[in-house]
Amino acid sequence: MSIISHHDTCVFHLRRQPPRHFAFLAHLLLVAQRERERRKKMRLIVHNMLSCNIKGVVNKFPLLIEAEKVIEKEVDFNPDFLRHMFAKIEWKALVDGARSMGYSELPDYAPDTAALDSDESFLRKFHHALLELHLDEGSIVCPETGRKFSVNKGIPNMLLHEDEV
Amino acid sequence: MWFLCVFYHRLLDFRKPEVEALAELFGEEIAENETLQWRLPEHHHNDTPFHFVQLSSEEIAQNIAKRSILVKGMYELWGEGTCYEELRDSIKSYPDSRKLPFLTPGSTFRISVETFGKAMTFDEQKDRIYSLTYIPFEGKVNLKNPDHNFFLMEMDESEENNGLPPIVQRRIFFGREVGFADRKLLPTFQLKSRNYLGPTAMDAEMAFLMANQAKATSGKLVYDPFVGTGSILVSAARFGAMTMGADIDIRVVRDGRGPDCNVWSNFKQYGLPMPVALLRMDNNLPPWRSGLKEIFDAIICDPPYGVRAGGRKSGGRKILRGTVDPYTVPEDKRTDHIPSTGAYSLVECVHDLLNLAARMLVMKGRLVFFFPVLRDENGGEVKFPEHPCFKLVAVSEQILSSRYSRVLLTMVKVEPYSEEIEEAARLMHLEFRENHLKWLEDGNIHSSVFKPSDASQIHADSKTFKDPKPKYRGKYV
To answer: Which of B105, B111, B269, B405 would bridge with B150, disulfide CB 3.0–4.6 Å?
Structure first.
């Protein structure tokens, strides 16, 4: 929703003060561009599922994150979904991944599943790390071979080269 | 409790499976190895829009109707008959305890007349409504926003039976509406107003049907391994599910047709939450970490079967054929290297899909996908792909031409995944592949779809022969 409201205020300004300066239009374009970029990102939930599948590699998970651009975006909070995911998540990979994206609020060790029901602040942190941190540009790197899988416009490219299959 | 379930007269094969899936979704308890109980009106054919279905509560019936795409409405039947005298007797014998609560003085009501296979003037409709005076209505009429909606449904009485086989006889139903469908979804989501489209974007109605088969709902994670422009995930997201998609073509998932015309923009257009992830990967060599399993609640997809879009997988054409060895990419060219891909046959693709689903679906999770079949003139039994983890629960055919159709298969995961199962699945796949060798020949489906058949050439020669358009078209509808 924040995207729309931001645009709305811009339009409002536009109506009150007709833009005489090119700079103002450029600013509008920039805002639009930035908002557009905010929408597409790789999140840690996916990082937690992926490994390097180059033939013969043994130590393939977790992939290291080299972040060039990290963005935070609010996502609807859905406790049921989080509870379902919690059991499937490799905790250490999530903690390390969140750190390399600049978020270090998660506890080092995964709490008991009971915390999911009793501790809302934990659930919020888990939600933030899993879904709201977005890697927009950067790479995810194989811990063994150093092969970089680029993340471009938020989309990890996991396709292997011919000599890696 | 039996309800009269009236369908739209379209996609006949998809109607009952949709209601069955939704009944499960809304908590109807169905014993293992059993399905919902259905009953046909007297002297009716399976293709009729009128069916009776047994559901445990009115609330479930209402929820099903509200969410369904092909159900027009669910009704509590008060009476039925072949003529109006029979209808009257039938309504009179329906217990007062069921009728009177809806006829009280303080309430408002409306009676609508619906017809099937014929049209009726307003005067005819009014006559029929006024003939119902034997029902003790005490409430006030309110046409805009009544408390209770009553429906009088009548079928064509002529011999012709528009749209149905001749054995079907005229029947009149009177009932109280319990729930009705919201087809407004379809004009909102129709493809012609969608920003980003590809050649195989799934049409909105079918995409919603697929999402219903998959029981997509809030808190569930739905995955599409052949996401393309995201048309299937859009429908799942509309029903509240979290979505995730992958595709081997990076231009489709990453770039689209510009900053406001890509997979993301398709979700934004309808104010839906973005997919939790879009990936570029090869389903033949998936990069999932070892130990990752049972994470998706449903997998919905339309695999590429080489008619309008062909599948691709890693490795060049020549490498896959074994004529050249895989070459080494020079170090300085690695970052921008574009790996080559080769053809990915349907049989292989379906095998990988079943394996992926067996591992990644939660128990009772659903795999919903289209599978093309050549329409065999000899009426031979079609064999569908199988997997030891899955039970096939619904098969719905959509006829696309006189020579091929596609079948929507719904499978439920009933066995946990293990390595032994993977091996068993591989053997099953080999057997399936053996039986489908003719499919493997390059371009077989493609040629059967696009080349004129021998039969049609003969017809073209003798122009005198022309099939009259049949009145009854069954699945073609």
So the answer is: B111
